[in-house]
Specification:
Elements (H helix, E strand, L loop, with lengths): L3 E6 L6 H10 L2 E5 L1 H8 L6 E2 H5 L14 H8 L5 H10 L4 E6 L4 H5 L5 H6 L4 H11 L5 E3 L5 H10 L6 H27 L2
Parallel strand pairs: 1-2, 1-4, 2-3, 4-5
Helix pairs in contact: 1-9, 8-10
Length: 194
């Protein structure tokens, strides 16, 4: 089991290869959903498919990728709690230290004259769930939801030998909750307008 895991699940692939490569160089094992894994592998990176951790293949036309207990256990575990560490050991999952995620473009889709069923396909469930779980556990997990943040966060990982500061993790967690609040508001507004 790798000592440090970084999970990538991105719709927008901008800048992920440099960020993932930098993390891999610091000893992180890169986990990724299928589309993100393919993009990273095409850049020459070694990637562990998320299905190896979840124990289930991605299914339901991509609707079910990351919403699995072992993945959320790796994100949410309190590293200082022996009971939590025992659960990770029991399910065979290491602690996920970094979560890099961005969402399906629901706001953009909702502005187009698309059929309702098509628009709802861009309503992301897994991405916000991953981001919120990682932000909830900011004491231990660095969560990045904006490609603009990749360069400076990577520099911090390099400066602190594979870690980030608590202040940075709090700042990034706050950004998650600002983003998910905005995302949820866009969904609510769309549904109200139907």
């Amino acid at each position: 089991m790798a000592q440090k895991w970084a999970l990538f699940s991105t719709f927008d692939k901008t800048g992920i290869s440099n960020f993932a490569s930098g993390l891999a160089g610091l000893g992180f094992e890169i986990l990724a959903t299928s589309g993100t894994a393919e993009a990273l592998q095409n850049c020459g990176l070694t990637v562990t498919p998320i299905s190896k951790i979840s124990g289930l293949p991605e299914s339901m036309d991509g609707r079910l990728k990351t919403l699995h207990g072992p993945i959320f256990a790796g994100i949410l575990a309190d590293r200082a709690n022996p009971e939590h560490r025992a659960v990770l050991e029991r399910v065979g999952v290491g602690p996920i230290e970094v979560v890099v995620v961005n969402f399906y473009p629901f706001k953009e889709s909702s502005r187009k004259a698309l059929p309702e069923a098509r628009t709802v396909e861009d309503l992301d469930v897994g991405g916000p769930a991953l981001a919120r779980a990682a932000a909830r556990n900011y004491q231990y997990v660095t969560v990045v939801v904006d490609p603009v943040d990749y360069p400076w966060v990577l520099k911090e990982f390099q400066h602190y030998a594979g870690n980030t500061t608590l202040e940075t993790r709090r700042k990034l967690a706050r950004k998650v909750f600002e983003l998910t609040a905005e995302y949820d508001r866009a969904i609510a507004n769309y549904l109200a307008g139907l």
